[in-house]
Design goal:
Layout lengths: L4 H10 L15 E4 L6 H14 L5 H27 L1 E3 L6 E5 L9 E4 L4 E3 L5 H28 L3 H23 L5 H12 L12 H10 L30
Antiparallel strand pairs: 1-3, 2-5, 3-4
Helix pairs in contact: 3-4, 3-5, 4-6, 5-6, 5-7
Organism: Pontibacillus chungwhensis BH030062
Protein name: Aerobactin siderophore biosynthesis IucA/IucC-like C-terminal domain-containing protein
Length: about 250
């Protein structure tokens, strides 16, 4: 089962999903296979290119920014269609690409699922299916990439997991309810609960970082637990509003 063009249209409208019809014939300024982020040597090249493009003074800060972008794509390019349409794009890095169509220095390419292939999430035993596929997503796509980033830059895994958890929380706690019909609201809640119920060992952490992040939010702790290093990029950047380094 593939995503329909109408479904891709919604993803393109709300997120940075690449819609081939809209951009047919448009020059791809930069094109990166997601698979390249898992290879140490290829990631070093990506890191150099992105650091140069955004005029970064710190490769670790650049790496953190990249994992922020990837966290957004993992959520909006993979989890969003799973929850919105019960269709999870196949968890394979070879047919996923980041496509940049502009020269904006924020470096925010579009996410492309080149094959359109997706797996159907059944209504029956949905929780079990969501847990299984999310676990595969972490083990096949997210964790190998974060591990490569850590090997190259020594960026702490805890920072990358919080970068990812931020977007999971944003989608399931906030944005999804703005675009789904009332009948789908329970699906959003159920999928989110299933994800939060996954054990920490899947992430190679003591605790599920998504659950840990959500619990802090529920306790009214708005600031991040770990600084994302954005302020180190260059003199045009400063601390995020939720930076834990800022005094109350």
């Amino acid at each position: 089962m593939n995503l329909t063009l109408d479904e891709v249209d919604v993803l393109d409208h709300y997120f940075r999903y690449y819609h081939p019809t809209y951009h047919d014939g448009e020059q791809r300024v930069e094109e990166i296979s997601l698979d390249a982020f898992r290879d140490v040597n290829q990631f070093k090249e990506i890191l150099e290119q992105v650091s140069s493009f955004i005029n970064s003074d710190s490769q670790r800060a650049t790496a953190s920014m990249i994992t922020k972008r990837l966290g957004y794509y993992f959520v909006t390019g993979m989890l969003a269609p799973m929850t919105l349409y019960s269709k999870l794009p196949v968890v394979e890095v070879e047919d996923k690409k980041l496509i940049r169509l502009d020269d904006h220095k924020k470096w925010f390419p579009k996410w492309s699922n080149e094959s359109y292939r997706s797996l159907s999430i059944p209504k029956s035993a949905r929780e079990k299916s969501v847990k299984h596929h999310f676990t595969v997503l972490i083990e096949t796509m997210v964790l190998p990439i974060f591990t490569t980033v850590h090997r190259v830059t020594s960026l702490p895994m805890k920072i990358m997991w919080e970068n990812f958890a931020t977007y999971v929380y944003w989608f399931y706690e906030q944005f999804a309810y703005e675009i789904v019909q009332k009948a789908q609201a329970n699906t959003v809640l159920c999928d989110y609960q299933a994800i939060r119920g996954i054990e920490g060992k899947v992430f190679q952490q003591k605790q599920n970082p998504i659950t840990q992040f959500a619990l802090r939010k529920e306790k009214g702790k708005e600031k991040r637990l770990f600084c994302c290093l954005t302020y180190q990029l260059n003199n045009e950047h400063t601390y995020c509003k939720v930076c834990p380094l800022l005094k109350n």
